[in-house]
Design a protein that fits this description.
The protein has one domain: Nucleotidyltransferase, domain 5 (2-Layer Sandwich), CATH 3.30.420.10. The chain is 42% helix and 25% strand. The protein has seven helices and six strands, in the order ββββαααβαβααα. A six-stranded mixed β-sheet has the order 1-4-3-2-5-6. It is globular, with a radius of gyration of 17 Å.
Length: 191
């Protein structure tokens, strides 16, 4: 699959989303794109996994919010050390990488609290938040939830708060925002 990300200097873009239970990682999805020509990126690899909770139970609100149950995590989940390994492996496959999520600051802090630090490879990783980007480019302070901006990008989220679906929605949002930002920059340069 090919995606348009206008004016990206990086060779790789990792778009991700994660779901948490009171700060504990319970689902992670990431799609790594590689630049194949100017502004054109191709899916290189994707991951999507659930993480078992170590001695705690899913909060009732989180279960209703995500649809993820204790039973599902026990049957389908991997342990946190395996999760770290899978994410590290994904990052090791690339350099000059842009990390993108809708709420990057909070995701980064929560992942760090789970022992996952995207920025330990600081020389080759930078980050971008599509929530903040939406606020700036769309010039508004409301209707900035992922589902709101995704609908403007032509994506309807039928399973909100599923990390894999939310990752693809973030891909669409990021592509749209890059395009709008490039158009605005071109418009300003003409004036």
């Amino acid at each position: 699959m090919l995606v348009l990300f206008k004016n990206m200097k990086q060779d790789n873009i990792l778009v991700f989303d994660a779901e948490y239970n009171e700060g504990d990682l319970i689902q992670f999805a990431g799609i790594l794109f590689r630049k194949i020509e100017e502004d054109i990126f191709q899916v290189h690899k994707s991951i999507n996994f659930y993480v078992k909770l170590d001695g705690t139970k899913i909060n009732y609100f989180i279960e209703r919010f995500t649809g993820i149950t204790d039973e599902y995590l026990e049957e389908e989940g991997i342990n946190l050390s395996e999760a770290k390994e899978k994410i590290d492996e994904l990052l090791r496959e690339s350099n000059n990488t842009l990390i993108v999520s809708h709420g990057l600051y909070n995701d980064r802090l929560t992942l760090e609290n789970n022992g996952i630090d995207f920025y330990e490879m600081e020389e080759c990783v930078t980050g971008l938040c599509t929530y903040n980007m939406s606020k700036r480019i769309l010039k508004r302070d409301n209707h900035l939830k992922l589902e709101d901006v995704a609908s403007e990008a032509g994506i309807f989220l039928s399973r909100k708060h599923n990390a894999f679906d939310d990752t693809w929605a973030t891909v669409a949002v990021f592509s749209l925002l890059c395009k709008l930002d490039a158009e605005e920059t071109d418009e300003k340069s003409i004036l």
